Amino acid sequence: MSAALAPYAASRDSSRGRRFSESSPAYRSEYQRDRDRIIHCGAFRRLEYKTQVFVNHEGDLFRTRLTHSVEVAQIGRSIARTLNLNEDLTEAIALAHDLGHTPFGHSGQDALNACMKDYGGFEHNLQSLRVVDLLEERYADFPGLNLTFETREGILKHCSVKNAAELGDVGRRFLEKKQPNLEAQVANLADEIAYNNHDVDDGLRSGLITVEPLREIRLFGEQYDEVARRHPDLPERVRIHEIVRRMINRLVVDLVEHSRRQLQDSGVGSITDVRDSGQALIGFSEPVRDQSRELKRFLRTHLYDHYRVRRMTRKAEKIVSDLFTAFMDDPRLLPTQYRDKAPTTSESAAARARVVADYIAGMTDRYAIREHRRLYDPLELT
Ligand code: MG
């Protein structure tokens, strides 16, 4: 049995509801319903074949966006439960947070953003919201998944002022400099905990990074020393797993304890107080935040900028921009369901570009590679 929700947690009574009103579910909370709709949608299944850092075909043991999202949900739920926040809402936000990601991870997004420069740009947070608000077509009574305001608020992690102005309800907090609900703040940091640690694990497994330089990084080094002291004879793979799980635990415990203090000190008593508070109330203590940043910098230099990752990045950029160019030049190349939505006049270039971006963003890594071959390889059958 979970304990009662804290007064500042998101709850049915304080919910701002759905865009299209619906009767309440019979045996589930509103946020459970959100989570269930996310799990059943097509964009969620495609996360299985989208890159986090390693492209899908590089190996079966590496994280994909799907396993990453499941890890974020696991970490987020633990934190939410301990802080008496709404676990179902945290889970829904965590599972949906990457739905708008392009194929090939951040390089895919950067490439698509560059292609969309003159047409309003491309941003994966915004695209995740677009997926759940509009692009999923599954229900008779409304477009998208018709999720609650709180889940949508959590999905929209960042947003430019220009885009915020066009978004209405969920965009307003970026104009008014307010905070999202606490469950969204938890999911956001659970994301950071998950990727920092699984990138260490995947990076080591791939051989692109090694243990020795990582020992200089405090978060890793402290746990390395502790594990070496307690279990000097562990096989290498077990040792790494033991270190990584201790790093996750260190971060989660610090986050819970520091956030608990901040929540008490702030005196917030409702979700409205949370939104109105000048700063995020969920966070790491100062020393641990520094350590987390140190690890991020290490991963940037040694893993994300590793020449083998950069080579894949370059290919990804080429695939995405080639696809964009082909479809913009001739929308008749688009599959029928997209072609029907893509206006062809010269004045409607921005609307056409958005349809093309939606199509490309929805692709998995391997689908994008195949589609590129079908469009550019004269010997490839279509
Ligand atoms: Mg993520």
Write structural notes for this entry.
By secondary structure, this protein is an all-alpha fold. The protein has helices spanning 30-40, 42-46, 65-82, 87-96, 105-115, 124-135, 149-155, 161-167, 172-176, 182-206, 211-214, 218-230, 236-266, 271-276, 286-304, 307-329, 336-339, 349-361, 365-376. The protein is globular. The model has no long low-confidence stretch (mean pLDDT 93). Magnesium ion binds next to helix 10.
User: What percentage of amino acids are in beta strands?
Assistant: under 5%
- Report the average pLDDT across residues: 93
Q: Assign a percent range to the helix content.
A: 55-70%
Order of helices and strands: HHHHHHHHHHHHHHHHHHH
Main beta sheet: strand number and arrangement?
A: none
Distance between the termini: 55 Å
CATH topology: Hypothetical protein af1432
CATH H-tier superfamily: Hypothetical protein af1432
CATH architecture: Orthogonal Bundle
CATH top level? Answer: Mainly Alpha
Number of separate structural domains = 1
Q: Could you tell me the number of beta strands?
A: 0
Structural class: mainly alpha
Ligands present: magnesium ion
Stretches where pLDDT is under 50 for at least 5 consecutive residues are none
**What is the alpha-carbon Rg in Å?**
22 Å
Anisotropy-based shape = globular
Number of helices: 19
